[in-house]
């Protein structure tokens, strides 16, 4: 999978090299995954020479975005909108090696050109506010507490001249609570030259996209300087989604999964009790049939006229043996690896594609025909909370290296909200079932502690996982108590904690790419101690406060009386007098006691 | 008169004080007071409209009606207005007059203090606002005087520090002004403000020249001999020390009452009253007036608002799964899990297993949990809900329909794309240990030597439903089991949702607390409530859901019962509806009650209503303990009838030693019953019961032989023991109400136990009574009453302690048992009556000498 995608990348970049500036192309890659799911990767790319960019001649580059970039001094920008989770166990490695995805919610990181940190912060604020308006997302909520400056995890993807590199500031912000939905898709499509009206973008429909099991929208803007050519500013828009084929095939006007009629139920007739009213189901083993219009609700009506015709707009990654019917006006081109094929579409024609059901008896065989076996990812990561109660807790990340011979080295980055105060001394990495001395797993830790209400915790750990082993990375934290007004309206839901970013480093240190694989864990929900916000509670505290303040003062004035010391009545209250009186009393007591004793003694004598 | 209401409210002593206060009021204040009252009385008749005559109406003020400027403070709208103003005015005016003298007050309050504010008011109201609002009442003076006082306070004490803010004290009347304007209807903000402004001016000293010169006042006073002629007259010269006069002598009133020996006789009756009221309170709860109908608090739940589609061909699938489960009926745990895992995996869910081994009372409880996670489509593993099915239910029956139902539901839920939370399907080999191991491991609170960690996890658990469906035939109603460990309960909203979905939407009856037929009358309600309380009090796990509740995961078990026409699909639809409701939750269940007693499926009492019952029972011990402490401070014998009995020194060492000893040996039974092997439990218990009967005699004998304690020391032993018991039980009542009440009632005779030095018959009667309510006797009697084997009861208690973290044994052995032993020792005590008292006196004298 990785090779395939890099192949496409190479193809694309080669194409972008050959054709001059201000060109545009788009591509849809479809790839069936196990458990009757389908990965659809949309990629749109256009570029513009830096000189015309400076001259405000934007051509196909979206003008609204370009102006924001210029205004905020942004040299490189990455924006992610994601929803759901990638099921690495069944779906394998991530598309684009994870380079085009973010954690749940919205993620933004950018390199800004600024002289000082303050200027960078100022520009960052400008950028987030402008993007917030452009994408209808709450990006303006990326404030100081949600912004970090990663040290190890990110490297610029573009080619920057060394002069500007020195003044570039990387800022990273994440909004895990942001729910990505259609209002974010519409502005995304508007940035495209064909606005989602023609070409593969016409397949993008909010209903289908947000019904996907996993989806990620990405915008990457970076300067690219081909050797010998003029530097260009490249914008790449990517949408990846994993669709459940069965769910997508449901008609839109009747989406309720009612039980199928008895006769349509697929049964395992080999069971001894199999009869008319008893059926052991065998749903998920059979190969699925699907077509483009069934999955996306419509087919491609027309290609985008602005696109570069040399890049095939639709590619399908299925074994060569799988039969595929494509509509007229398209030509099928099989790749030499026998695992994928692309379709070239003639201008101004539509495109439809049908994959018929595989009629085989053996389910294992049908899977081999149906789909390319997913590639194993370099690392599996799973993060969860440990502990219970509202005082403290822990975070545990399970990192598994499936490879039998290669070690994985990566950077694990957490940007935590300030109200999770981590205990750095508790950070520990241990290999499961492995005790005793070993080379330390954690190689380097970069930690920037949180400041209450001002900035969050930033933790970057460079570590390794030996081959075929599972590493538990754990640390403990304390939950702080928020102020009354700092709770959101749904305080009892808990607080979202952003996904951890895992960047697997390139083992060849001098390689062209900094990271070979990126991934995000799932986000977490942290429940903090929450006061009872119910109405009776509020009434009680407010009325008590009012009474204490208003009537306390009044009562005080009515009752208390201040008299200067010399005005007051003579009480004989000097210390001397008091002491004298005490002593007198004591002496009296003693004398009395003695006489009493004496009398007692006399009595006994008598 | 205010004094009357004060007196009635505050009792005898305050009455005295109030009367003396009223008696000492200076002349002018009295005159104003009388004037206000007289004007109010005049205003009561309806012939002549006093208010129209005397109020300050801006439009009506002319040369001929200038009297209004002076009359309006005396005239009030109604009785309430007059009373409130009198209450506020009298202390302020009294202070003013006693500082400045009657004549000055007269001159000021009939001159500038009434006219200046009214002119200000007229100016603002008529000229600026062009309105015509009539004002009346003495409150203008109240604010004027408050202004003066505020300025004076400000000079002495400029700031009131609230947090980090310094609030100037002179603003306090402004705050009061705002409060009055906001809270009191038809109060004149402007009028009050004018009064306040004049008050501020006066306080700052700008109005000093308006006061009549002292020389003249002195002359008038001297000429007319006012001081001699008028009672309560405050002279110009008179200083104002001791404004409040001398307090009423301390020998009267409450202090005298405190010394009254009869007071010491009250506490036992008060204790008895507390117990009786506590019990009666409990029996009142099922009445309509004291209990409430349940309601859904959390709007997001929307129970019963969705169509359920679990039916049709899914029943064919259910039948197939049931065949599979039946085929596994007598297979081992591992074989069962292998088969179930293959089925669940075939549905496309992620599965994992977990081993656990618990040891309790010499027995090993081990098994393997199987669970599967249905990942929410589009979800992010932040939240999860759990569907639990134990292979065997609490009674040990095979969950014959429950497990196939869970499998079918898993397949059905997989088809839906609307889940916002992950759904975890958990199949445990038994009903208590398996879920406990799983939940502990899910929250990483497990002992990893006994319980394996979970290989697969999801997000925060938001709720759990357990299905216990072993019945073969069609059912009639659903039984909701909701008791958690240690009497913790799930959020009432969860139960209400199930009731509303099953009862309201599906038309399936719902029962609680094994009340299969409930007619919603008093006896049935009471029975339901008492059953619930007993279960809560015992604190044991009552089903697979119980383990979830201590982790703040709301959970219930649903058990179909009865002979009706509802089939498994109906049960499935109930679960589907409940899951759809839980799926709607935006926040953790928090809206409704966590502390409640249910007396019918739709009727409950909340903690505020029922808690006083247990608190009263617990308070009876504390009251008696305090009374005994006070009593032990008096020398006994001769002084009972005299008001001033001599004080006695308390000899604390022996009582504290006895209590410490008894409390510390409580660890022995706790350890013994939680660690003995099951075969030895019954013999151990019998032996312990025998020893337990003898123990108070031994301690008592030892004390009598070596220490010969006095009556006072016995009092103190009892006081400390009861104090501890009261303290423990009142705190326990907030955690587990039923247990606190149960123990409180069983221990209530201890309040009334005392040494009977002169009467062996009574002593033995008391001893027998105490032995009848000893912890051991109660446990044995309970086992016999419910037809249980004593060994089983003890084994269960040990299991609860070892596996579930149930704290009932701690309460029984470390709270109740020591109190019982101490009480028995007191009953058996033979204090040295007369001799000991004289001895005590001798000791006391010695002690004094040492001093």
From TrEMBL, chain A:
GO biological process per UniProt: attachment of GPI anchor to protein
Xref: InterPro entries: PIG-T
Signal peptide range in chain numbering: 1-20
Chaperone found in the keyword field: no
Pfam families the record matches: Gpi16
GO cellular component: GPI-anchor transamidase complex
Parts of the chain that traverse the membrane: 535-559
UniProt keyword terms in alphabetical order: Membrane, Signal, Transmembrane, Transmembrane helix
UniProt name for this protein: GPI transamidase component PIG-T
Annotated source species: Cercophora newfieldiana
Native organism taxonomy: Eukaryota, Fungi, Dikarya, Ascomycota, Pezizomycotina
UniProtKB/TrEMBL annotation, chain B:
Subcellular location: Membrane
Molecular function, one GO term: serine-type endopeptidase activity
Keyword flag Transmembrane: yes
Keyword terms: Membrane, Transmembrane, Transmembrane helix
Main localization (coarse): membrane
Membrane topology, as annotated: Multi-pass membrane protein
GO biological process entries: attachment of GPI anchor to protein
Region named Disordered: 832-851
GO cellular component: GPI-anchor transamidase complex
Keyword Electron transport carried by entry: no
InterPro entries according to UniProt: Gaa1, Peptidase_S54_rhomboid_dom, Rhomboid-like_sf
Superkingdom, taxonomy of origin: Eukaryota
Peptidase S54 rhomboid domain span: 65-207
Bilayer-spanning residue ranges: 27-48, 74-93, 105-123, 129-148, 160-183, 189-209, 266-287, 610-631, 652-673, 768-786, 806-828
Protein name: Gaa1-like protein
